[in-house]
Amino acid sequence: MTHKTILYQPDPDEAFVTITLHRPDKLNAIDRTLAAELDDAIARACADPAIGAIVLTGAGRAFSVGYDLVSEDYAKDAEWWRENIDECCRHLFAIWNAPLPIVAAVNGFALAGGLELMLCCDLAIAAEDARLGEPEVRHASGPPTLMLPWIVPIRHARHLMYTGDMIDGREAARIHLVNKAVPAERLMLEARRLAAKLARMPKPAIKYAKASLNQAQLLAGLQASWQYNRETMAQLHASGSGRAWLQRLLEMPLREFLELREAPFRELDEP
After folding, report:
1. What is the reported pTM?
2. Domains defined for the chain, CATH in brackets
3. What residues are labeled active site?
């Protein structure tokens, strides 16, 4: 597959590849093309016996701001949303279930579906000034996979999903949303160094360790929680409030839509 929205760059010295989401003008918002190309890039890396790890990052000012809100008409019924969310889950499950370790290098914004994408990676390093969160709750939306309670203590998951607050990389590291936070200028250096370390490990050791860890989450109910979340999110988007916000999105420029969404919270959000 020829990629339009993904950069695939094997390291010249170490056995890992850097995959870059490359829609910088859209802050790497995930549309159908990017999702399909990311699937292809991950599969290509996993099929290459010379590759032992993956770094996933974003071009420009963002890791990813989530699913592309203006790429299609989202004012649909619950059945349409159920199928749409199921498709999103299939793409994200392929990341979570890949046999190679994937390191997310979080530059700039990692929001909504972009945060879920990061959470499905095995490890994550964030720039200290990165901005992470689930702000879509403020327009009657929610994440497709519900990964937060599988990564952070439930108090932090509730805070992020109830308030739509964004936190920086330092706070993300404190609550274990990411493994560590580093100055922005060191982000890729640190991510590549970690990937090089993973790639030097005996490949079967990480493959089977990951399989065992993933199985522990599956046995604890991860897939069932995703399926339940799919149903609740489909109902949310088809609700009166969900439809009203989606109608505004269709009728308004995105900047005006976001200003309207954020207006009630400006005096309550931390600077």
Report:
1. 0.95
2. 6-265 (3.90.226.10)
3. 116, 136
